[in-house]
Amino acid sequence: MTVRSGFRLQLLLGGAALAISATPAFAQTAPTADATAPAATAAPEDQGLGDIVVTATKRETNLQKTPISISVLNTQGLTDRHVLSLFNLADGTIPSLRVATFEARQSALTIGIRGIVPYDQNQTARDGGVGVYIDGVALGKTQGLNAALFDIERIEVLKGPQGTLFGRNTEGGALSLVSKAPTGVFDGRITGGVGNYGSHNVDAHLDLPSFYNIALKFDGVYQHQDPTVKDPLTGSTGWNYYDRKGGRAAARWQPVDGFTADFAYDYAKDENTPQYSQLINYNPNNYAVGTYNAAGALTLNGVACGGTIAAGSTKPVCVAPRGPLVGVHPGRQTVADVGVPQQPSVDITHGFSANLKYKLAPWMELRSITAWRGVSTDQWDNSGGPERSSFAPFVPNTANPTAINTTGTFSRYSLSFLRQHQFSQEFQAVGSIPEFDYVVGAYYYTEHATEYAATPLSNQWNSDGTAYTIRSPIPGNSSAITGANSGYQQYDPSCNNTLGATVAQFANSCQFITRASQAADHNYSVFGNLTYTPEFLGNVLHITAGGRWTKDDRHGTLYVVNNRSDLVTAGTVSPFSFKNSISRFDPMFNIAFDASRDVHFYAKYSTGFRAGGANDRSLQFNAFGPEAVKSYEIGAKMDFWNHRARLNIANYIMDRSNTQFDFDYFDTNGTSPTNGTHIEQTTNAGSSKIRGVEVDLTVKPIPELTLTGSYAYTYWRAPSAVNPLTPGAPAQQLYIVYTPKNAASGAIDYVVPINVGDASVRLHLDGNYSSSQYSFQLEPTKTDASFVMNGRLALADIAVNDHNKVTVSVWARNLLDTTYIYRRSAANSSPVVNYNPNGTVASTSYGGILGDYANFNAPRTWGLELSAKF
C-alpha cells in the first residue's frame, strides 16, 4: 500500500468540507438535559436530545462543547446491551474501540483505539497503548481487566492521544470508567437473572442515608456462565467459562461546604477459561502427506522424508498425517475432539482510592487522587489441544526399547503466575478566571510486577495416535517424562532471591520454570492545560495550549529462561537485566470555534507515547525503547432539528514512530528439545501511519424513539522489518491487529409509557459490523467480517407500592447466533524456512505443518432478569 503525496492535507480538508456541508442553519433553543446523561437533570422527552456531561478535560463539560472526539456509554446503554464486563464490548459497540482477549485467554484483555492496538503487553515489563482508568486511577496491567463491572455510571472513550492530561500509554486514547458515587439518600436496587449455558447473575446496590455528613454505598456482583465448548476429559473445565464475584464499598464525606472526600475499596475475583482454539482446515497448501513405517519413520512411497530438508537435498517433501482423533471443523465446535487438562484461571483485583476535592476559592479547586491497587493472576490456559501442533507418534528408541520418548507430546499448557502492585498520587488545581480556564497538576506512579511461567505439554499420543495419556505436571513423579519444558511444579520462593539462590536450590526447585522475571517502574510528571476565550471576540473562540513533562524509569531482571543451566555461575543465578529511562515533553494545541450555540468546530494537534520495556518471552529479556505518536485532528459537533438530531464528525491523522512490534517463533516440532516453546522478541521496527474518519449520529424524531449510528473508517500502513529470530531472512510485512478498515454500529431504542405510574415498555436493538482484520502482527491472514446483533425487551418500573418498583426483561447477545472467526493463524500451515547469514536458504522444516487454527465468537446467549428498586 502507498500513500499519495498530499494525502494528509486532502483528508483534513475533505473532512472539513464534509463537516461544513453538513452544518444545518436551524433556530437555536436552550440546551436541555438528557434523561440518560449521568450528571444532568432529566428534561421532558419532547424537548429532544439533551446535554451529556463528561470529564475528559478534568472538569465537567458538555460533550458537544468538548473539542475532542469522545463516545459515551451510560448505565442504560450498558444494561440494554447486557454488558457485564469489558469483553462484552468486543462486538464493536463503539466502532473505533477494539477489545479482544490476549491470545485465547479471558484473563487479560487487549484494548485498542484508532489502530493503536498492542499485540502482547501481557507481561511484567510491557504496557498497552490505551490507558484504562477507573475513577481517575490508571490500571497498570491488562490482567484482570475482564473482571465484573460494578455500578458504572458511564464509560468515556477518549479518542486520540491523551498524553497531556492522562500521560503515558495513552497514545491511542483513554478508556475511563466512572462509578456511581454515594448519594446520601436511601436507595436500593437488586437484579437477578438466569440464562442459557447455565448462566446466572446477581448484582445488588445499596445507598444509605447520610449521617454526620457521611454517605455510604455498597455494591456486590456475581456472574456465572458454564462452558460453551465442552472438554471430554473428566474433571476438566470446558472453554469460555467464567465465574465472577466482587464487591465495592464507597464513602463520601462532606464535612464543610466546598470539601468532598470520596473513599472506595473494591475486590473482585474472576475465574475463567480461555476461548477454544480449533482446527479449521488441514494442510491447506496441499503438500504430500507421508505415512509412518513400522520403525516409526515418516516416509513417502517408501522413502524417508519430512522433518527438516536441507537446501539441495534430494529427500522427498512430505508432511505428517493428521492424527485419527484430530478433527477439522470449519464451523464452531461445541465439544472438543481431544480432552486436555483445563482448570479455570483465577484473577484477583483489588484497590483503595482516596479522591479529595476542596474549593479553595471561586476561581480554584484543589484535588488529590491517591490510590493503591494490585492484581494477581494464576493462569491455566490449555486452549490449543492438538490443533496447534502437528501429529507425531512415538519413535522407537532402539538403544533402550523400554525407555519412554518425548516425541508425540502435544497441547501446550500455558501457565503464568503474575503479581503486580501499584501506587499512584496525583495533584490537580482546576479553575477559571476571566477569559481563562486552567488545569495544572503533578503525578507520580510506581509499580512492581513479578511473574513465573511454564509451558508443559500436557498430553501424549500412543504409538499410532489412536489414544493419548495425560502427562504428570509434577517433576519427580514416576509417571512424569523428563526433559526440557516437560513438566511444572509450584515455584519455590527461594528463587525470588535471584542473587542468593544456591545452585542446588535452582536445580531442584526452579528447573521446570520456563521463565521468571520481575520489573519495577517509576513515573514522574507535571502537566497543564490553559484555555483562552477572548471576550472581545464574543466568547466564540477557544484557544487551548497544554503540555506534560514525563520522566519514566523502568528496570527488571529475567532470571529463568527455558531451563538454561548456563545462567547458574559461581553458586548464584546470573540474571539477564535491563534498564531504560526516558524524559520527554508532550504538547497539545487546540482551537475551537462556536459557529452558533449548537454548531462547534475544532482543530487539534497532540502527541503521546507508549513507554519502553523488555520482553520476558525472549531469551535475553531484550529491551526496547518507547514509541511515540503525533496526531492531527479536526472535527465538528452539531445539534439541529430543534435538538432532535446530533451529528459529530472527526477526521484524524496519526504518525507513529519507533513502533513496537513483536516477532515470535513457536516451536511445534515434536522432536525438538524446545517443542512447545514460544519465543518472542520485541523491536522498535519503524514508522506506522494511521488515518481515519469517525461519524456519530443520534436522531430522536419522536419522544418515544431514539436512533443512533456510528461509523469509523481506519486506514493504516505498517513497515516491513527483518525478524530478529530468523537471521538472514528477508524483511517481512508487519500488520496492525484488530483494526478493521470499516466498522459501524447502530441502535434502536423505543420507549412506550403504559400510563401506570412510571411504567413503560422499553425495546432495544443494536447491530455492530466490522470488516475483516488481522489478528497477528506477522501474518497476512485475516479474520472474518462480522455482524452481531443484541437486544433487550423490558417492562420497566412497575410500581409494586408507593416505594418499590420492579422491571422484568429478556435479553439476548448475538441475537442471530452469527458465527465468525475473530482470531485466525496460519502459522502452522506453511513450512519454516531457515536462512544462512548471507540470506540464502539453509533448510526448510515441514515438521510443524498442520493447518489454520482459529477462535470463534461466542454463540448466542440469552436470559431473563428481574430487577427491583426499594
Question: How would you sum up this structure, described in words?
Answer:
With 870 residues, the chain is mainly beta. 3% of the residues lie in helices and 49% in strands. It contains three helices and 51 strands. The strands form twelve sheets. It has a 22-stranded antiparallel β-barrel. The protein has a five-stranded mixed beta sheet with strand order 3-8-9-6-7. Strand 16 and strand 17 form a beta hairpin. It is globular, with a radius of gyration of 28 Å. The protein starts with 6 loop residues before the first helix and ends with a strand. The relative contact order is 0.14. The model is unreliable at 1-45, 394-406, 475-511 and 668-676 (pLDDT under 50).
Put simply, the count of helices is 3
Structural class: mainly beta
- The residue fraction in helices comes out at under 10%
Unreliable stretches covering 5 or more consecutive residues: 1-45, 394-406, 475-511, 668-676
Distance between the termini: 60 Å
Explain briefly what this protein structure is.
The strands form twelve sheets. The chain has a 22-stranded antiparallel barrel. The chain has a five-stranded mixed sheet with strand order 3-8-9-6-7. A three-stranded antiparallel sheet has the order 15-50-47, with no helix packed on it. The chain is mainly β.
